[in-house]
Amino acid sequence: MKPTIAITIRNSYFEDTLKYHCNQAYINALDKLDCNYVIIAPNSNHDYSYLLDFCDGLLINGGDDIDSIYFNQPLHKTATLVSASIDEMDFALVKLFSDNKLPILGICRGLQIINVFFKGTLIQDIPSQYQTDINHSRNDLKDQFAHQIDIAPNTFLSRIFGTTTNINSIHHQAIKDVANNFKIVATSTDDIVEAIEKDNIIAVQFHPELLLQDERFHQIFVYFIDLCNKK
Fold it and tell me: 74-83: long-range contacts (C-beta < 8 A, 24 or more apart)?
């Protein structure tokens, strides 16, 4: 049977109305694979156990910043928070899927959610809190390469790219302290963490769904679906 992937939803205001949305690029990445997918919205009690009846993996996508209350820091003035229900949903889904040993792929905010859930911390604003010459917030280059990363051997990214690759970069927050038992898979040349993994949880800080013109980046989704097929 085809695996079914749960995809997190995001929200934002449009014409003074709060609306849910999911960027089409994530759908495009999964559409190229032999899988099904469902988009998950928050519910009032954050009980998503019904997903275990038919979902084989979780994709936590990008979005705005996580409330710093989750990693015991004062909120930085540059933070742009999602609604509390989105934070609560993301953490509840990570708990559900990890407790049941189902694969998880985190992208950008998704990597940060995974790290914070497993007791890691974040740099809330790279430009003001981290000394670097790299601009990690290249929103003008969403589907283009912004900088290079170095990749650790014997990791999910090394199987695809080898020891280095160029990536896009659309974030102002990043991992500070890596969560317990997670391996750092890749770093930028200024030592910002760009990917982590543990067991069947993989996560990247960049956006492979926007770089599908390069088949190597689609292989990240292929690797994730392979994990779902092996669960």
Answer: 75/124, 76/124, 76/125, 76/128, 76/129, 78/124, 78/125, 78/128, 78/172, 79/124, 79/125, 82/10, 82/11, 83/11, 83/18
pTM over 0.85: yes
CATH number, domain of 86, equals 3.40.50.880
| Spatial separation of the C-alpha atoms in residues 16 and 118, rounded to whole Å | 35
pLDDT of residue 226: 97
Q: Identify the pLDDT of residue 82.
A: 86
Provide the domain limits for residue 98. Answer: 4-230
Query: Would you call 66 helix, strand, or coil by DSSP?
Result: coil
The letter for the amino acid at 155 is T
Instruction: Tally the domains of the chain.
Output: 1
**Using CA of residue 31, residue 193, residue 200, residue 58, what is the dihedral sign?**
negative
Q: How many Cβ atoms are within 10 Å of 18's Cβ, its own excluded? A: 9
Q: Which long-range contacts (CB under 8 A, 24 or more apart) does 81-86 make?
A: 82/10, 82/11, 83/11, 83/18, 85/42, 85/46, 86/8, 86/9, 86/10, 86/11, 86/42
Give all strands (DSSP E) within the chain, no chain letters. 4-8, 10-14, 17-21, 36-40, 57-60, 104-107, 122-123, 147-151, 164-167, 174-175, 183-188, 193-198, 201-204
pLDDT digits (tens, 9 = 90+) for 123-170: 999 999 999 999 999 999 999 999 999 999 999 999 999 999 999 999
| Dihedral angle of Cα 229, 87, 186, 126, to the nearest 10 degrees | 160
